[in-house]
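In this section we walk through a basic example: taking a raw amino acid sequence and producing a predicted 3D structure, encoded as discrete structure tokens. The instruction is simple. Fold the sequence below.
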Amino acid sequence: MDNLFEEMFTIEGIMGALVISDDGSSEFTKFSSPLSERIGDKDFGVFIKNSINIEALKGAFDSSMETLLIYEKIRLYIRKIKSGYLLIAMGMFVPVAMVRMNCQIIIPELDNFKKKKGLGRFFKNK
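The resulting token sequence is shown next.
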């Protein structure tokens, strides 16, 4: 799944990405090391996952598919996907349009990645 987020991390100021399933389990976590150093926590993905109330997220996404949370030094872009939520942590000056565009490219691939299990992931359907 790392290769899905390669282009996202080429955008200057992207600090990390986190995919959370509907039940609250973390399916993918990748954060830059400078972010972990500033926070003082070795696993910032666990920190964010524990800070977010999944039930509150479900209630917030009744009518919308995305939201942007703005804090003092960080912004969190949260996007609803079929299997849960995609969170992108970014700096204050990252162009959100670039993040949205990358998410639109990544989300169909995430849905396909989630569906493939067992031996079926080795064979392509034509």
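Looking at the output, two observations stand out. The mean pLDDT is 76. The two ends are 23 Å apart (CA to CA). In the next section we compare this with other chains.
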